[in-house]
Amino acid sequence: MTRTRESSLADRRVLVLGNDDRAAALVRTLAADGVDATRTAAAPEALATLDAVQIDLFVVVDGGEWRPGDVFGAAARRGHQPQGVFVGSKARELPPGVEQAPAGAEAAASVIRQRLLAATATEAEPAVDHDPLAAYGETVSHELRNHLSAARLAVDSLDGPTVEQVHNALDRLEGLADEAAAIAAGEVDDPELVSLETAAEDAASRVRSPQSSIQVDADDRVAGDPELVTLLLENLIRNSVEHGSSEGADAGVTVRVTDTDAGFAVVDDGPGFGGGDPFAWGYSTDGGQGAGLGIVQRIADAHGWEIVVSSDDGARVELRTD
């Protein structure tokens, strides 16, 4: 049976932490769309609610006497791993799995609804294989979400520096459209010689990793699409940064991009991959969308490259290009 959008949202419980009118307005907006949303005004009360009730999405609204990273961290230490959203106009350092939404009830509710519907889609039964068009749609959704959020946050408080941020984000979105078209085509028509060092450095600059070290030790060149090679490396680096430490984001991880005899590899010193196929669409160990490594697989396929994975002393993903 296919669930409707409304019933999918009604099946989900959202906890909103906020002590002002913005939080109350957000709860009212979500309720109008059929979402079961509850508001608490203090962090201890929110944590107690997480202990007592199954929560699917934990939302923290800026403006209270708390730091969002501390609240989400406290929830994780108590064994709670719901999806998270922080609502605020100023960019904050957030744990993996927590997305920042722009201030404003409608804009924030839109992000929250997207997260709830995405979670419902990954749990839908019976499970079906993704066809190429569906995989393409997931690729676009996964990648555009991060950059659209950055654009919304910048537009909320336009001034000199933020105008440049908007232009940079929109330029990136235009590049993503080209990348998505290439992924959908399933092949690279006009490969170029791509510098792995340049692509890896560009990829690393797109990943926030204050607690992690990203090292580039690759100077070979490969035949491929420059933007797609960069996107592939970005997703591998982000996967290592967000999932490469068994002690959480605060512990950090060392990620290294290196040449190999047959191509190149991305290696980290984390716990390695668990069971299952990490490159399958929808595969996730923490409730995420499971699209990042699926993108890597599609880009590798488009270039005719082989992926070899190992988990000795950390995760190692080698791309064999020869």
Q: In a nutshell, what does this entry contain?
A:
With 322 residues, the chain is an alpha/beta fold. It has two domains: 5-127, Rossmann fold (3-Layer(aba) Sandwich), CATH 3.40.50.2300; 192-320, Histidine kinase-like ATPase, C-terminal domain (Heat Shock Protein 90). The protein has helices spanning 5-10, 21-32, 43-52, 68-77, 105-123, 132-156, 160-185, 196-205, 226-243, 292-303, and strands spanning 13-17, 36-40, 57-61, 83-87, 98-101, 192-195, 213-217, 221-224, 254-259, 263-268, 306-310, 316-320.
SSE class: alpha/beta
CATH superfamily of the largest domain: Histidine kinase-like ATPase, C-terminal domain
H/E topology pattern: HEHEHEHEEHHHEHEEHEEHEE
Number of helices: 10
Number of domains: 2
Tell me what the CATH architecture of the largest domain is.
Answer: 2-Layer Sandwich
Q: What is the CATH topology classification name of the largest domain?
A: Heat Shock Protein 90
Give the overall form.
globular
Name the beta content range. 15-25%
Widest sheet, order of strands: 2-1-3-4-5
The end-to-end distance, rounded to whole angstroms, is 46 Å
Integer average pLDDT: 78
* Top-tier CATH class of the largest domain: Alpha Beta
Radius of gyration: 20 Å
Report on the biggest sheet.
5 strands, parallel
What is the total tally of β strands?
Answer: 12
Q: Name the helicity range.
A: 40-55%
GO molecular function: ATP binding; protein histidine kinase activity
Protein name: histidine kinase
Catalytic activity: ATP + protein L-histidine = ADP + protein N-phospho-L-histidine
Domain Histidine kinase: 139-322
